[in-house]
Write a structure and sequence with these properties.
3 helices; alpha/beta; palmitate; 5 strands; 5-stranded mixed sheet; LPS_assembly_LptE; LPS-assembly lipoprotein LptE
Length: about 160
Amino acid sequence: MRRRSLLAATATLPAAALLGGCGFALRRPPPLSFERLALVGFAAGSPMEQALRRLMPQTVTLVDAPQQAQVVLESLLERRERVVSGTTSFGQVRDMVVRVRFRYRVSTRAGKPLVDPSELLQYRDQSYNETLALAKELEQTELYRDMETDIAMQVLRRLETVREI
């Protein structure tokens, strides 16, 4: 019995060594070159602002007043959209496209632009069935949250390029 467990452990050792050298690492927020950031222009309870706050590295402090920040991220447009992309011959909805559009700019507290006004757009296709309306609504909520997280990660990667403060 002891010999069998020793053989099993010896057989799994090369597999573990291969996995250890594959370069796998958990996804982390990118390191940012500044310490204080102000998020302005977001609506109260904005899902995009919540996603940015959730993904912000711990090395960055979010401040309320732009005068206290080194960098200001201003939301110019944040919109969730839903468009019908396919119908049946009876006019019933079969396919939809859900989109999240986010336009922003990044500047210093004095107003000097660090990142030109940019727009990010994410969209997902979604099938639709009226008999599963509640489930499709929950799926749509998850799709929106996933897209907002993707956009927030893209914004953080763009903030990583900000060097001159």
